[in-house]
From TrEMBL:
It is an enzyme of class 1 (oxidoreductase). It comes from Malassezia cuniculi. Keywords: Magnesium, Oxidoreductase. GO terms for biological process: isocitrate metabolic process; lysine biosynthetic process; tricarboxylic acid cycle. Residues 15-369 form the Isopropylmalate dehydrogenase-like domain. Coiled coil: none annotated. Gene3D superfamilies: Isopropylmalate Dehydrogenase (3.40.718.10). Its EC number is 1.1.1.87. The gene is LYS12. SMART domains: Iso_dh (SM01329). Belongs to the isocitrate and isopropylmalate dehydrogenases family. This is Homoisocitrate dehydrogenase. One of its GO terms (molecular function) is NAD binding.
Length: 374
């Protein structure tokens, strides 16, 4: 994938699959759709409603219809996914539709940027600006679990899969994202270095995390001209951090991290935790990226306790839509959306209840962002 987009610009309308799925996904995704359509410089869109989710499974016994997969593969340029209510206990016949979609569409990278000023009263005095590149296809998320009865009681086991191929591929994606950030900083006149941090626990999991660590490092080492490589990542620094100490440092010194690349489970935990640095999961966007397809997905869950009450924060979904457009090769409308959201947050008058002092509704935030776009 070209780090700045997978689609060449086209005069035809872009077909975007819209999958609200569960809970507040049904409220925030329509907001993101309307903001996308209103963004200056945006292409024409054709939004395609599609079904998936646990609520659909409860009605039909199928969490992800084949028709949804086929439509995305055969006639959509990109997609937006709302949220899913995967149960915490085993439900016979159910598996997460978002996990399956990532595999079906070969969306091997989950890209989650977190940026913003320090929270009021925080001991951290510098802005956070980090992006987690999460491997999206393996680790414990292969969901190969078993349980057996023994004389001592039940024993449960889970298989963890880490492959050289997937680790190398996600390492390459991390360095491409880092190169893009370095180029943007250079254009902005900044001499701030760009750094990739490998997150692992190879001091304990020496085989699986060890393979992840060495595979990502090999991408960096093989790129060096002295090793016969093209030198695409010259100037990018490489670091590594054990996952437990990474969490500690992230909450004390988030500014030391730039691009973090991690196996699936660690990347999920780190990026969710990083949302606390900017105030709420309701602010944090992501895209699921492959070489030929992009799917935006807000980081938050389905929030059933507030679903249907017009209380959900739509900013994560709006930012995810902008991130999707950016990676599809449409930076101008993406930038317009980013700036509109930032303006609303900076003003601080229209905030949902998940943010300090917030009392605004989902609709209030939508109206504020749309005004800021003009």
């Amino acid at each position: 994938m070209n780090p700045t987009g997978v689609l060449a610009k086209t005069s035809r309308a872009l077909r975007i699959g819209m999958i609200p799925a569960d809970g507040i996904g049904k409220e925030v995704l329509p907001v993101a759709q309307r903001v996308m359509a209103a963004a200056p410089g945006a292409p024409q869109f054709e939004f395609v409603p599609l079904e998936a989710g646990f609520e659909l499974f409860q009605k039909t016994g199928n969490a992800l219809p084949q028709a949804t997969i086929d439509t995305l593969k055969n006639s959509c340029d990109g997609a937006m996914f709302g949220s899913v209510s995967s149960p915490s206990h085993r439900v016979a016949g159910y598996s997460s539709p978002i996990v399956r979609l990532r595999k079906e569409l070969e969306l091997y990278a989950n890209i989650r940027p977190v940026s913003g000023p320090p929270l009021p009263g925080s001991a951290i005095k510098r802005p956070t600006d980090m992006v987690t590149i999460r491997e999206n296809t393996e680790c414990l998320y292969v969901k190969q679990e078993s349980i057996e009865d023994t004389p001592e009681g039940q024993v449960a086991r889970a298989i963890r899969v880490i492959s050289e191929q997937a680790s190398t591929r996600i390492g390459r994606k991390a360095f491409e994202v880092a190169r893009g950030r370095a180029e943007m900083r250079k254009r902005a006149g900044s001499d701030e270095p760009t750094k990739v941090t490998i997150c692992h626990k190879s001091n304990v999991l020496s085989i699986t995390d060890g393979l992840f660590r060495t595979s990502v490092r090999s991408v960096y080492d093989n790129d060096k001209p002295e090793n016969g490589g093209p030198g695409n990542y010259a100037g990018i620094q490489l670091d590594e951090q054990l996952v437990d100490s990474m969490v500690y440092r992230m909450f004390r010194e988030p500014y030391v991290f730039d691009v973090v690349v991690a196996p699936n489970l660690y990347g999920d935990i780190i990026s969710d935790g990083a949302a606390a640095l900017v105030g709420s999961l309701g602010l944090v966007a992501s895209v699921n990226a492959g070489d030929n397809f992009i799917m935006g997905e807000p980081v938050h869950g389905s929030a059933p306790d507030i679903a249907g009450q017009n209380k959900a924060n739509p900013i994560a979904a709006i930012r995810s839509a902008a991130l999707m457009l950016e990676y599809m090769g449409y930076p101008e409308p993406a930038l317009a959306i980013y700036r509109a959201v930032d303006a609303v947050l900076a003003e601080g008058k229209v905030l949902t209840p998940d943010l300090p002092g917030g009392k605004a509704t989902t609709s209030d935030v939508e109206e504020a962002v749309l005004r800021a776009l003009n």
